[in-house]
Amino acid sequence: MSKQKVLPGKFIIIRHGESEWNALKRWTGTRDVPLTTKGHQEAREVAELVADISIDYAYISEQVRTRQTLEAMIESQGWSFDYEVDGRTNERDYGIYTGKLKEDMRQEFGEELYQAVRRSWNQPIPEGETLKDVYARTLPFYQEKVLPRLSKGENVLLVGHGNSIRSMIKYIEDISDEDIAKAEMIFAAALVYKVGSDGRAISKQVLETDISHK
């Protein structure tokens, strides 16, 4: 964890609720797929986890599942704050594997390659992105958009995706290229960070609902 002076604002990270393709265990990536009924419920329950934090501003991706998650959270709590769409927080592009059933790909690849494609730092995907590619767009977003607001004492919410979140926490928690494969952002949970002026974590809270799941 960073030893720098802590910034006054909090950075809250939440993964979108379950989408229709999450329920089917398909690789979704940048495909626009809406939330399931369960996903809407997850959004409402995760909002309860952070209800005592006064959120000043929020960011979502271009995918509808983040917007639906944020809207469900806002409605359930009666919140009022501005939010912004930033495509740099989009989910990883799974290229030619988009829409494929994860179990089919596991059988085709074998366990080792499947896990490398799914979770590793720089395993290429034809016509798609590596996690390293995602990091190259989410880090500037974090540094240019989030840190200035935290510096002003604003509490900032990001509703993101499994891989866009993993890429950001790689920087925030200073996780190695090798160890990032072990990191996962679960559904129906919230990460709450206090960071230094370099954007690295000084403290971290993990808040989980009773329905949190991978």
Quick overview of this protein structure:
The protein has 214 residues and is of the alpha/beta class.
Question: Care to describe what's here?
Answer:
The structure is a single chain. With 214 residues, the chain is α/β, with parallel strands linked by helices. It is built from seven helices and six strands; from the N terminus they run E-H-H-E-H-E-H-H-H-E-H-E-E. The protein has a six-stranded mixed beta sheet with strand order 3-2-4-1-5-6, with helices on both faces. A hairpin with a 5-residue loop joins strand 5 and strand 6. Helix 2 crosses helix 3 and helix 4 crosses helix 5. It starts with 10 loop residues before the first strand and ends with a strand. The mean pLDDT is 95.
Task: Furnish the topology, listing elements before pairings.
Blueprint: E1 11-15, H1 20-24, H2 37-49, E2 57-60, H3 64-77, E3 82-85, H4 102-109, H5 111-119, H6 131-151, E4 156-160, H7 162-172, E5 187-195, E6 201-213
Parallel strand pairs: 1-4, 2-3, 2-4
Antiparallel strand pairs: 1-5, 5-6
Helix pairs in contact: 2-3, 4-5, 6-7
Would you report the number of β strands?
Answer: 6
* Fraction in beta strands: 15-25%
Into which percent range does the helicity of residues fall? 25-40%
Could you say which structural class the secondary elements and strand pairing correspond to?
Answer: alpha/beta
Query: Biggest β-sheet, characterized?
Result: 6 strands, mixed
Distance between the termini: 25 Å
Task: Give the overall form.
Answer: globular
- Overall mean pLDDT score? 95
How many distinct helices? Answer: 7
Main-sheet strand order equals 3-2-4-1-5-6
Weakly predicted, low-confidence segments: none
Elements, N to C (H/E): EHHEHEHHHEHEE
This entry's quaternary arrangement is single chain
- The rounded Rg comes to 16 Å
